Amino acid sequence: MSKVVKSVISRGCLNPVTGAGRTSVDTGFSAKLELVDKICYLGDMLSVDGDADAAVEARIGMSSGSWYHCLLTNKDVSLIMRGRLYSSCVRSSMLHGNETWPVTRENVVALQRAEMRMIRWMCGIKLKDRFPSKELRERLGIDDIALVLRQNRLHWYGHVLRKLDDD
Question: 155 with 101: CB under 8 angstroms?
Fold first, then answer.
């Protein structure tokens, strides 16, 4: 199990530190810090401009790992059970930390495309078969990822509203 976890964690941060014009800053304590555009921190990509593009790309990359393929395409497992496995394993890793992302429309579209690719794959449907996304989600018993994003953000917002001022 630890090998699987290590490979999944490392997949999200293949290039842990990137920067176009790298320069360094002297901290005054005989140490220099390198300035970068993006950095992997605790398995999530943080960028200097504060957008969620790097985090969304990293999370989509993590969710397309191969360790769960045998479960999600197994014909002996019902579609409803595959949908539950997808929601609990794949989608939860894809949306980890999304409550604090400054999500744009492009980020939502990228997540929806990645999710629909996996849903079609689980159902054994090709893109050219032209099945409606809503029908495929109903077969698996899962909600649209945009709705789940919104629910997660509202859930987090509720925690923020209930937080005491002295915390």
Answer: no
Residue keyed to tokens 């990228």? 110
- How far apart are alpha carbons 72 and 79 in whole angstroms? 9
Domain extents in the chain: 50-162
Find tokens 């509720």 and name the residue.
158
pLDDT in tens, 16-46: 455 555 576 666 777 777 777 888 777 778 7
Which residue, 23, 7, 101, is CA-closest to 61?
A: 7
| pTM for the structure as a whole | 0.73
> What confidence tens digit (pLDDT) does each residue in 50-97 have?
788 888 888 888 777 666 677 788 888 899 999 998 888 888 888 888
Is the pLDDT at 108 greater than 90, yes or no? Answer: yes
DSSP state letters, 43-89? TEEEETT--SHHHHHHHHHHHT-STTHHHHT-TTS-HHHHHHHIIII
H or E segment at 7?
A: helix 2-12
Q: What is the C-alpha to C-alpha distance for residues 47 and 84, in angstroms, rounded to an integer? A: 32
Cα 26 to Cα 17, 38, 41: the distances in Å are: 19, 19, 22
- Would you say the C-alpha torsion 77, 58, 95, 103 has a positive or negative sign? negative
Question: Tokens standing for 2?
Answer: 């630890």
